[in-house]
Amino acid sequence: MQGLMQDKPLLISSLIEHAATFHPEQEIVSRSIEGPIHRTNYRRIAHRAKQVANVLNELGVEFGDRVGTLAWNTWRHMELYFGVSGSGAVLHTVNPRLFPEQVEYILNHAEDKVLFFDISFASLVEKLVPKLKSIEHFVALTDRAHMPEVDIPGLLCYEDLVEGASVEYDWPEFDERTASSLCYTSGTTGNPKGVLYSHRSTVLHSLMAMAPDAFNVSVRSTLLLVVPMFHANAWGMPYVAAMVGAKMVLPGEHLDGEHLYPLMRDERVTFSQAVPTVWLMFFQYLDAHPELDLDKELCIDTIGIGGSAPPRAMVRRLETQLGAQVIQGWGMTETSPLGVVNRPLPKHDDLDRDGLDELKVKQGRGIWGVHIKIVNDEGEPQPWDGVHSGHLYIRGPWIASGYFRAEGGGVLDDEGYFPTGDIATLDPDGYLQLVDRAKDVIKSGGEWISSMDLENAAFSHPGVAEAAVIAIPHEKWQERPLMVVVKRAGAQVDEDEIMAHLAERVVKWWLPDDIVFVDELPHTATGKLLKTKLREQFAGYRPRREAVRS
Amino acid sequence: MQGLMQDKPLLISSLIEHAATFHPEQEIVSRSIEGPIHRTNYRRIAHRAKQVANVLNELGVEFGDRVGTLAWNTWRHMELYFGVSGSGAVLHTVNPRLFPEQVEYILNHAEDKVLFFDISFASLVEKLVPKLKSIEHFVALTDRAHMPEVDIPGLLCYEDLVEGASVEYDWPEFDERTASSLCYTSGTTGNPKGVLYSHRSTVLHSLMAMAPDAFNVSVRSTLLLVVPMFHANAWGMPYVAAMVGAKMVLPGEHLDGEHLYPLMRDERVTFSQAVPTVWLMFFQYLDAHPELDLDKELCIDTIGIGGSAPPRAMVRRLETQLGAQVIQGWGMTETSPLGVVNRPLPKHDDLDRDGLDELKVKQGRGIWGVHIKIVNDEGEPQPWDGVHSGHLYIRGPWIASGYFRAEGGGVLDDEGYFPTGDIATLDPDGYLQLVDRAKDVIKSGGEWISSMDLENAAFSHPGVAEAAVIAIPHEKWQERPLMVVVKRAGAQVDEDEIMAHLAERVVKWWLPDDIVFVDELPHTATGKLLKTKLREQFAGYRPRREAVRS
Ligand SMILES: Nc1ncnc2c1ncn2[C@@H]1O[C@H](COP(=O)(O)OP(=O)(O)OP(=O)(O)O)[C@@H](O)[C@H]1O
Ligand SMILES: Nc1ncnc2c1ncn2[C@@H]1O[C@H](COP(=O)(O)OP(=O)(O)OP(=O)(O)O)[C@@H](O)[C@H]1O
Ligand SMILES: [Mg+2]
Ligand SMILES: [Mg+2]
Questions:
Q1: What pLDDT score was predicted for residue B524?
Q2: Domain AMP-binding enzyme C-terminal, which positions (chains A, B) (predicted)?
Q3: Which atom of ligand 1 is nearest to the CA of A333?
Q4: Which of A63, A208, A366 has the CB atom closest to B22's CB atom?
């Protein structure tokens, strides 16, 4: 027997419609690519999203067609978020920091029909044009006065199109399982893979992301959205913000402290989410400006971190110096991205600073909607004791069931779980802690050495700017760790000193067989260590000493 | 094109499973019907819900069968909430305070197969047994030692059944639109009508109810659930609590201050929801116990009120004396029940006490998922100006599309909106304010007089315990208001005094043609004025003076 409830599909258009109805005047403030600060509100965004829908129609975009964006976080990208998906087309947010060949691969793989791009990417697009197979229209996200001088045939101007389009548009109603947006993974191994979200998954994810035990977003929040809108839907925040009518601050192109700090101060930001790298840059700015009176100038109360593991010292500094609560989250492009969120439980209220740091470097606990399990190589579930680690699997209504165009084949296990490729422990309270990525863990004598733990241990040495650990083959132990280190500018530090530092922090047989110093490490477009590249670089490398293990 | 996201149905079983996995030790504290305080936790509730599912199976309950409850808020009722719906049967919560004929009507109308009842209703059930047509098994919600001595053939004992059942049970997976529970309206006109919720509507409603801008429920909340679990699913709170793992305090049978206060104090309650009548009783208790040190003893920070309009003085007293934030909500059995919620916006932060009172007597603003409109008698949308009133219509995924067994026929309008039967204004910020029920409003000379406003105006007189206003026919003006008043115990107040009091608060032509004093007013089972009864009582009544209107 079916219930007798109204059968309203969960659609992304409902989010912006809600914001326009109940929060029309709420501000969206952006640092524009052209330079000046730009202010709009939900009423106008909703308006222009409808104009975008009419533009797409005129450009021949049909239901299900992919529409690409190469763009920073601005109000125009917000308009595309709602205009493209709301009309039934698929918003494909492309990461412009990828290598040009990857951008090319992705645009062709997705078969985008139209590409909207920020003027900062005009010459990138110009170079790609001859290689792009499906794109029929290129649109520069600017007004007539700022149109880039590039050789892109039939290049269109966003403001001309939008302002010229009718605002009359009724959001269509369709199956909530319809594809809404497409985002490719960061590409730490080979080519990125496309994750195809649905309206349903997006709305459900938004409902959970705004919950008090997740990111606790309300009409009282002012969100500085540093996570790029091309990175896993900016962790879902554009949708969440519209759902609650929160004020948004969109930083555009520049994500360094110099640019973020004034926005945070002037717009009275209460909440900001970013990857650890961004917070490191923010610290550099604070270090260079000891005169700033943070207590007086800032009112940020919540900082979200994810994408990679924040070092313990970062959590502590953010909480003590900024007086904000750090909420770590773990997720993947494939998980929309919310998987687990780290909020202390009431029983943690009495923890001292060390205890809090200990707790907060864990990735977090499961939220409703997400089922997780950790299993060993044989697929057997591991206990939640904080000790046993296993391959992390995840299931739920906003978790991918596969990749776009079946790239990678059927990926779910026979219980319907998605294999994350991460290795983790779960403690008795359900806090998940990442050990490593399965492909990065060093398998030494049948046991695991976490490259992540070794990197964190090295990083806690003041002379270390960055460290990466990869496996090198070993006759007796199969694999042994090799550490590659970038020294902090001006720091005097040698192998022995780092080795001694590590020896105090990890068991003896984990110590790397060698430590090599380099000037820089290879990274992915989202700022993650690109270990595939590093492995190529050090293929055949022979350590200068015997494995401590022996 | 469909998204590539996992197709997990939204099911009620996922709520209790989440709580059992991530909050196994969180407490559910109940005042048992047998007397003592009872403590359990989510792990055990989840366990026993599975045992309930096995019991239902043994009793021959099949997918979609209705299972009735006549029960107060206790842990056993929680077990039934999850055990019955989780297994695919329909939980039918019956209001035991209805007139026995209504209880009989409802049980037969729903064709319940099994009835679980609290021992306090044993003799009610005993009397009904001969008239009940579909019930095959009666189960007393108690243990062997407390089985009531009644003549109910084959009466079963809940604890015997549950403890004897296997805990092995896998929650079945099925279409999320499957009916999950059934609840009848309060019956202010004729027989109550059945509202049939689905798993989908229940889960979506829970996600929204827990949001920061709605009831803001988290693992840090301790919920004293005074709204009965037979009244619109206790405003959805049993589901929300499980979704976040909140501690619950279930007060059982006695809802007066004498019983609620110690629970609030001893269990460190932070949040409680109840209809205005309950808070009136609570005040009586506080008045009788001036020695209580509320600041020291209580930590309640949020009070939810709905079901009928809280008088302004009540809001003020709760906020000033208890230091809690009052969150009014408007809803109906037909709306799951969350329709609008009253939280101040950031721009209200500077309001003084009078301004706050003014704001907080409004019913609230729309939340995501709910679309509302007000239309005049001709169906034309009315402006959101806080002045124009209209019939309130509502649409959304947790709003009824019709009644059980098509009672009342097709009810939605041609845009798919549900007619609430309420008349309201909407102000420019989207705050809804009820004017009256359409059937209670007095239509005088083509204009409306709000019986609700008149009642509130009378209620603000210290000598008035309760007041009801109904229409009486008038030759010239079609209808004129008649006010019926119950004096406060010991109060000396007469018609002239009340009339003078009213004259300061409403326009002259609204003044009732007569004020009649009575000893008590008729109420529905949920404590609402039963105006149908009052109209019968005063049929043919002739007012003692001329309509002021003339
Ligand atoms: N809080 C966190 N701490 C540590 N690692 C994290 C955290 N959050 C995410 N990660 C890592 O990031 C991964 C998800 O990143 P993303 O989806 O952006 O692409 P990627 O996995 O880096 O790229 P690709 O899948 O193409 O190799 C996770 O699998 C995990 O390894
Ligand atoms: N906050 C509130 N302020 C004023 N009235 C309210 C409020 N919340 C709910 N109501 C009233 O309660 C009604 C919903 O009540 P409920 O579903 O319990 O049954 P009922 O309408 O009283 O009974 P029936 O539909 O059988 O006549 C609303 O239509 C509205 O008139
Ligand atoms: Mg990945
Ligand atoms: Mg009603």
A1: 80
A2: 454-528
A3: 17
A4: A366
- Ramachandran assignment for A468, one of left (phi > 0), alpha (psi -120 to 50 degrees), beta (any other): beta
- Residues in B touching A418 (Cβ below 8 Å): 6
**Comparison of pLDDT for B222 and B407, the residue scoring more:** B222
In chain B, which residues fall in CATH 3.30.300.30?
442-537
- Percent of chain B beyond pLDDT 90? 88
**Does the pLDDT value for residue B518 go beyond 80?**
yes
Does residue A136 have an active-site annotation? no
pLDDT band at A547 (very low <50, low <70, confident <90, very high): low
B384 has catalytic annotation: no
- Ligand 2 closest atom vs CA B193: 26
Which of B195, B219, B346 lies nearest to residue A213, judging by beta carbons?
B219
Q: Does domain A365-437 have CATH number 2.30.38.10?
A: yes
Judged by DSSP in three states, A374 sits in strand
Homologous superfamily of B9-28+41-202 in CATH? ANL, N-terminal domain (3.40.50.12780)
Question: What CATH number is given for B442-537 in this structure?
Answer: 3.30.300.30
Q: Could you give the residue range(s) of every CATH 3.40.50.12780 domain in chain B?
A: 9-28+41-202
The CATH superfamily assigned to A9-26+39-199 is ANL, N-terminal domain (3.40.50.12780)
Residues of chain A with CATH 2.30.38.10: 365-437
Vertex B134: Cα angle to B129 and B138 (nearest 5): 50
Query: Structure tokens of B533?
Result: 């009864």
- The distance from CA B405 to its chain's CA centroid, rounded to whole angstroms, is 22
Cα A57–Cα A60–Cα A61 angle in degrees, nearest 5: 75
Q: Which two tokens stand for residue B338?
A: 């969350």
CB burial string B341-378: b at 16+ within 10 A, e below: bbbbbeeeeeeeeeebbebbbbbbbbbbbbbbbbbeee
Contacts of A196 (CB under 8 A, 6+ apart): A90, A179, A181, A182, A400, A403, A404, B1, B3, B4, B5
Confidence of residue B3 (pLDDT cuts 50, 70, 90): very high
Mean pLDDT, rounded, for B11-19: 98
Q: Give the count of Cβ contacts less than 8 A between chain A and B.
A: 191
Ligand 1 atom with the smallest distance to the CA of A185 is 26
Give residue-wise pLDDT tens across range B265-299: 999 999 999 999 899 899 999 999 999 999 999 99
Read off the pLDDT of each residue in B26-52 and give the average, rounded to a whole number.
Answer: 98
B409 Cα: distance to centroid of ligand 4 (angstroms): 15
Evaluate if residue B550 carries a pLDDT over 80.
Answer: no
pLDDT at B420 over 80: yes
Averaged pLDDT for residues B461-482? 92
Q: Give span(s): CATH 3.40.50.12780, chain A.
A: 9-26+39-199
Chain A positions in Cβ-Cβ contact with residue B327 (cut-off 8 Å): none
- Inspect the interface and report whether the beta carbons of B14 and A198 lie closer than 8 Å: no
**B84: three-class secondary structure by DSSP:** helix
Average pLDDT of chain A, as a whole number: 95
B15–A244 C-beta distance less than 8 A: no
Mode of pairing for the β-strands spanning A271-274 and A222-225: parallel
Residue of B nearest to A348 (CA): B220
Which chain B residues are closer than 8 Å to A396 by Cβ? 6, 8
Which of B189, B303, B315, B333 has most ligand 2 atoms within 8 Å of its beta carbon, as the pocket-test mutant?
B333
**What per-residue confidence (pLDDT) applies to B548?**
63
The residues facing B357 across adjacent strands are none
- Contact yes or no for B196 and A5 at CB 8 A: yes
Q: How many angstroms separate the CA atoms of A208 and A203, rounded?
A: 9
Ligand with the closest atom to the CA of A195: 1
Average pLDDT across chain B, whole number: 95
Q: What are the pLDDT digits (tens) for A402-437?
A: 999 988 788 999 999 999 999 999 999 999 999 999
pLDDT digits (tens, 9 = 90+) for A47-73: 999 999 999 999 999 999 999 999 999
CATH of domain B366-437: 2.30.38.10
Which of A175, A217, A397 has its CB closest to that of B8?
A: A397
Contacts of A177 in chain B (CB under 8 A): 2-3, 5, 7
Residues lining ligand 1, judged by CB closer than 6 Å? A 185-189, 192, 306-309, 328, 330-333, 363, 420-422, 434, 437, 526, 528
